[in-house]
Every structure is written in C-alpha cells, then in structure tokens.
Design brief:
Blueprint: H1 6-22, H2 26-32, E1 37-46, E2 53-62, E3 70-77, H3 82-99, E4 104-111, H4 119-132, E5 142-146, H5 152-166, H6 190-205, E6 214-218, H7 222-233, E7 237-243, E8 246-249, H8 256-264, E9 276-278, H9 280-284, E10 290-293, E11 312-314, H10 323-332, E12 336-338, H11 340-343, H12 346-360, H13 366-391, H14 395-414
Parallel strand pairs: 3-4, 3-5, 6-7, 6-10, 10-11, 11-12
Antiparallel strand pairs: 1-2, 2-4, 7-8, 8-9
Helix pairs in contact: 1-3, 1-14, 3-14, 4-5, 6-7, 6-12, 6-13, 12-13, 13-14
Length: 418
C-alpha cells in the first residue's frame, strides 16, 4: 500500500522497458528493479502550539550500494510516501551513473507540512527523524542532502544529531550544509546553475543563443529561481515564472531579483502587482524558446502536453512529464528534450564535490566548483547527444541507457556474494 504510487510504477516500468531494449542480464534486472533497502519509521514530536504530541511517518530508501555509498535528498512534504521516495532513489541511481559519480541512488523524507511548522518544531522533527535512520547513514554508507521542503539548516541539524551520537564532528554525513559547518561554495545554486550549463550546450544545436531566447519557468523555488537569475545574467528574457499560487508574466522580461526578494519576504507570486497574472497551465502553454518545469513531478500530462509551444524543454524537476506525455513529446513533437536525469544533475554533482572536500578537509573556491560542474555536465550532455544520434533514439532514452549501463556493468563486475 505504501509503495503504491503512479511515479513508482512509471519509474519501474521505464527501467524494465530500457532493460529489455538493452538486453541486460536477467539477474541484474531483478536486482536493480527494486530498492536494496527500504525503511519506514514512525516517531513522535512535541508540537509547540499546545504541547501536544504528534506522530510522523518517515522514510529512507537505498536503491543500490554497488557503486559506493548511496546519495539522495530528504524531502518534507504532506504527500511523501514510500513509493515516491523509492522511485526517486531509482532515478538517482541512473543520474549518478550517467554523470560518472561513485554513488548509488537514495531518497528519504517525512510526511509533513513544513510551512505550517515553526523553527523549533522543524528542528525537533529533523533530529528525531535523523535518530531513527541513524544506522542507515554515514559518510561511507549513505549521504543525505536537501530536497523539497528542506534546506541547509535542516542539513546542519542532521549533521549535528549524527555527530553527537559519534562524539565528534562528522561533516561528511550530509551535503548541502551551511559553509560554516563544512558546506561547499556553489551548492545552493548548483541545480539551477546546472540546468543553465546544459542549456548553453543545447541551444546552440537549435540555432539559438541564450541572449536572444525567451524563457518560462514553472516553479520558483531553489531550482527555478537560480535558473532564472543565471539566465537573466546571460541576457535571456525570462517572461514568466510561477509558484503554487499562480504565475506572473511580462512580455519584456521579469525583474528576477525583485521577484526573489518578494518571495523571501514571505509573499506569494499571486501578490506581486507589477506583472500580468496567469495560471500554471497558461504558463506551460506560452510560446517561448525555453520552458523549464521546476516544480513537482507529473505537471505535464497527456491532457496538456499538446499545449506546449516551446522549442527546448529543460526538466529542472524530477519527472515533470508523465510517461504518456514523454512518449508524445518524443514521438510527435520537434521539441528538444533535456531530460531530468541530465538537466538537474548539478545538485548531486556539487554534493559529490562537498563530500570529497569534507573527507579531505580541503575546500575549493566557487570558481573551481563551477568549472568542475560545467565539465561534468557538458561531458554528459555530449555523450547523451552522441548516443541519441548514433542509435537514433530520444535524449531521454539515451541518458537512461548510459546511466543504467554503467550500473549494470558494475553489478556484473562485482559478481555474487557468497
């Protein structure tokens, strides 16, 4: 029941489809078709409003440990389920394989609404959840990171809780921390910045340049806002952005920094008065050069996919397209798809850099972080395009094929114990 979810079913079906096309070893398919470890926990937290005790459900899933420790975010959201985190852990495995990172995929989360909780409640929840999954995480075993509803402060609390149990500071147990406790330069911006690095490579192949491009961004959280800043800095005209309250639109381009400050003050985009207002569905249908879905999964479906009028679709979110919508896009449209497994790989890549720096106790400049990030993402993009061209398949299938193939080869190389 907990694992039943449309995202999990679609992710597993996608893997089996790819495995059949690749003619993978049956034993490898059986091992990679389900998570290696899954944990469900329940735990109490005393709430600050009236002192009542509330029980929360938490999860941590490790898809495969073949490549090294597992890596993946922690999300706080009212709809977190075992199925969702299992699917995202599997996706993370393919992403790390594609990018050449020494990790398997993992994911975790707590079913809660962080927006309705104060700082003390969030800290109590985070520390208790960390204690419940303590035996699954370590710098050598599984390294959490921020995701939807979590941030560097949550990672600092997780690191501190783990370190208190060990008796000494262990900064490498999580990534995405504040720099003062072992975080890295460039981590907060990494996912959004990575989307733009991939776009820079991609648009040239479409006869576009970023300074001459129009952009719409669905989702104005960490990924969408940073991508907006980076694109505006490169001269692109960001004409529309949205959050859960709706979208704002300005044909001549939006003031991205002003909108970020508006959101930072606690106000939603629906309260911004210096632009026209649209629904999220209307944003997806805008005629723009670049569309970046950077919100929740499955925002583009078979019901609205035919409304898309962009030239390039860069998937900043995980699985923003349903399987049916992806099939339509790849089979019936001329839109260039930059799949999530490639386009939003900047976060896990810079998390890898942070982990390496923590292990060495030697930290890099932001310039060095960004240079290394761009090298990894542009190399991955070129390998995806070469594979797609050679095999005459869509970018998504090429990216998945490269990621799955690397993990499958590692499984076969290690053999079977005992």
């Amino acid at each position: 029941m907990e694992k039943a979810s449309a995202l999990y079913e679609a992710t597993v079906a996608q893997f089996h489809e790819m495995a059949e096309e690749m003619e993978l070893d049956a034993g490898v398919v059986a091992r990679l078709g389900a998570p290696q470890r899954s944990l469900i926990v329940t735990f109490p937290v005393r709430m600050g409003d009236d002192g009542s005790v509330r029980t929360f459900y938490g999860y941590r899933v490790q898809h495969t440990l073949t490549m090294g420790p597992t890596k993946g975010g922690i999300r706080y959201h009212p709809e977190v389920t075992l199925g969702e985190v299992s699917a995202l852990a599997m996706m993370m495995t393919w992403k790390c394989g594609l990018l050449g990172l020494p990790y398997g995929g993992a994911k975790g989360g707590v079913r809660c609404d962080p927006r309705s909780m104060d700082r003390a409640e969030l800290q109590a929840l985070t520390r208790r959840y960390t204690n419940e999954i303590l035996h699954m995480i370590s710098p050598e075993r599984d390294i959490p990171a921020p995701d939807m509803g979590t941030d560097p402060q949550v990672m600092a609390w997780m690191m501190d809780t783990y370190s208190m149990q060990k008796g000494f500071a262990v900064p490498g147990v999580v990534t995405g921390k504040p720099r003062i406790v072992g975080g890295t330069e460039g981590r907060f911006e990494a996912t959004g910045r990575g989307v733009v690095f991939v776009l820079e490579e991609a648009v040239a192949r479409e006869g576009l340049t970023l300074p001459a491009s129009t952009v719409a961004i669905q989702g104005f959280g960490n990924v969408g806002s940073i991508a907006g800043v980076e694109l505006a800095h490169r001269g692109a005209r960001v004409v529309a952005v949205s959050d859960s309250s709706g979208a704002v639109y300005k044909r001549d381009g939006l003031p991205i920094s002003e909108l970020i400050n508006h959101r930072a003050s606690g106000r939603r985009l629906a309260e911004y008065s210096e632009a026209d207002h649209l629904t999220n569905e209307e944003l997806l249908a805008l005629e723009v050069d670049i569309l970046i879905p950077a919100a929740l999964q499955h925002q583009i479906t078979e019901d609205n996919v035919h409304n898309l009028r962009c030239r390039v679709l860069a998937e900043g979110a995980n699985a923003p397209c349903t399987s049916a919508a992806a099939d339509i896009l790849e089979g019936e449209s001329d839109i260039l798809i930059l799949p999530d497994v490639l386009a939003n790989g900047g976060g896990v890549t810079v998390s890898y850099f942070e982990w390496v720096q923590d292990l060495q106790s030697y930290f890099w400049t932001e310039e060095e972080v960004n240079r290394r990030l761009k090298e990894i993402l542009t190399s991955a993009f070129r390998r995806v395009r070469e594979t797609a061209s050679r095999r005459k398949i869509p970018n998504r299938r090429a990216a998945l094929m490269l990621g799955i193939e690397r993990v499958a080869q590692a499984k076969l190389a290690r053999g079977l114990f005992p």
